[in-house]
Amino acid sequence: MKRPVLFLILFGLLIAAALCGGLGGGLVAYYLFQNQRLVSAPSTPFIEPTLQPSPTPVAHLFVQTTQIETTITQVVEKVSPAVVTVVAKMPDQLGFFGVIPGGTSSGSGFIISQEGYVITNNHVVEGAESVHIVLLSGEERPAQVIGRDRFSDLAVLKMDGDVPAVVTLGNSDELRPGETVIAIGSPLGDFKNSVTVGVISATGRAIDTGEGYYLEGLLQTDAAINQGNSGGPLVNLAGEVIGVNTLIVRTSSSGVTVEGLGFAIPSNTVQAVATQIIEKGYVSRPFLGVRWQPINPTLAQQYNLPVEWGIYVSEVIEGSPAETAGIRPGDIITRIGNLAIDANHPFINVLFSFKPGDEVTVELVRRSKTLQVTLTLGESR
């Protein structure tokens, strides 16, 4: 019995030793693991992460409507009811094979008063035998031409019936390059009340009409202007009309294609011209009383003339200020007042810088001699 008892005692001691060794090894391993963590990141002790509330509330975007109004859309909604399409019926022409239908031309315009006066370009209605306008609603109304002025390319119409809306004319002298503008009109006559947006690129521009005078003081814009937009309003972000869309340049004199070169007549010019047309039926212009041909360096060299710039007087109208002052056929007028006639200042523009009734000094060349005469300008219609 002693041997089995001894065997059991020894076996128990071995089991106890194994357990103690495993426990000790685990303690050593834990100790080494902790030391390793401390060595690899001595300056960043382990911190249990906790969720903290944000110091400021998170902003959320709530879209309350799909029709987001902007300044531009508000302006368009305000002005569009007063914008019209102008349709001009041209007279028939007699051709070699019979009558050629005159057809129609179209442009744009806008209503400026409760009396039904409408502004458009002269070139939209020039030569028309009848005119009608088309409202935003599609309703057609007959209109009559009250007066036209080709030198400013403006015309005033008067529509029949009730007026749906009127525009407000702004002060174009206050415009600055970079200001956002909106063009509204009917390109090609079909796309009624189309809207384009751009900026004022420059002010005070001059464009040669090819008819012996410049359109001066124009606003330059990159808002798209196409055929049919002529006569439509150019509007600022205050909803005021600050110009009349008139023309766009697509190629340079050398044939280079350009983009974004649109031009509009400033609203202050529109106000002055429209007021005269409505009150008198015409625009009062200064009258000198001569028929003339322009002189340029090419003609001066070709005909051996004594000056390079001016106008050659071909006829003096009887009873005119020119006749009274002693101007004769064959004279070359080179200056009126302190304004010389040259490449940038055609005769018409120089003359129109004065008013009827102004007393001016006219400088002319007669048989290579320079003379000066004083006269009082008359009034032309």
Automatic annotation (TrEMBL):
SMART domains assigned to the protein according to its UniProt record, in alphabetical order: PDZ
One Gene Ontology MF term: serine-type endopeptidase activity
Domain (PDZ) ranges: 272-341
Pfam families: PDZ_2 (PF13180), Trypsin_2 (PF13365)
Gene Ontology biological-process entries: proteolysis
Keywords: Hydrolase, Protease
UniProt keyword Hydrolase present: yes
Classification via InterPro entries: Chloro_Bact_Ser_Proteases, PDZ, PDZ_sf, Peptidase_S1_PA, Peptidase_S1_PA_chymotrypsin, Peptidase_S1C
Family to which this protein belongs: Belongs to the peptidase S1C family.
Protein name per Swiss-Prot or TrEMBL: PDZ domain-containing protein
Organism of derivation: Thermanaerothrix daxensis
